[in-house]
Fold this protein.
Amino acid sequence: MAAEMAESPVNLTAFKRHVPTDSETAGGLTDAAVITRVMDFPPSERGPRERLESLMSGWKRGLSKSMVPYREDGRTYPGSEYFCADGFFPWYFSQSPKILFVGRETVQMSGGDYIADCLVAYRQNSVAGVTVNRHAFHSRMMYLAYGITHGCGIACEDLPRAGDIAAAFGTREGISFAFMELSKYSNDNEDANSRRDKGLMERFLRDSLSAGRNFFREELELLDPDIIITMNLWECGVDNALIEAALGKVTLEDGKTWQPHATVNRIVINGRRVLLIDLNHFSSRKSTKECFYNPVMGIVRGEGIPDQPQ
């Protein structure tokens, strides 16, 4: 994959973790004054944001004693230095339905705050050096969230441009969503944009699950989504038993697939059976309309969900 396909909006040097990170900042990725200006949570979300920050801080502390090898220099560093926080964007809890996207791994953002840096990138319409329109990963999230929150009745070709959606994203007038990575250990290897680090992902899951509390479930329960959209999570090479131990049991809805592009599942969160749609990875070179947008709109509308020819 080209660099523009990475899940991360900003590139760090591969050797960033040689410099100590400051847990009170966004990892030095974006100027603090800029973050303060764009991270404008409404009063009703300031409590959840504080709880999320507390959760992320506790998660990071729980990883501080794990020494994780870094492939580029052969040295080991505390897991807390790889950690990149995530969560929800402003006005998420005002959305109906509330949508959570779940990716595989953070890329080149060790010590950062994914939400803060993505929001700045959206405002500047520059994600990893390209516009939101040209960035497959982020434009697809914009299109899907916009379509769902507008009743699933807009044809793909009639959607606003992703950059226009992003311009009002995270405001009262725009859309919003939540985002979390399966692995919050940032893959900062030189080849991170073309090669996922399965070993680092599994290491994060094991380190987190051995920390004495299930941070994954706590984050899901705090976000309390109505719809979860995952990105080929069960085909990424990570031990599926580890994924289930982290997220909880995911149940396939019998006969409800949009093959080969989507599967329809349920996961219990806060006592509710939440719809979980697993798609292709968002950086894959597939048709946004046929392989992402149309299947999701059909599933959410509750249509017949027929098998689709490959």
In short: The longest strand covers residues 178-187. Confidence is low (pLDDT under 50) at residues 1-6, 8-29, 304-310.
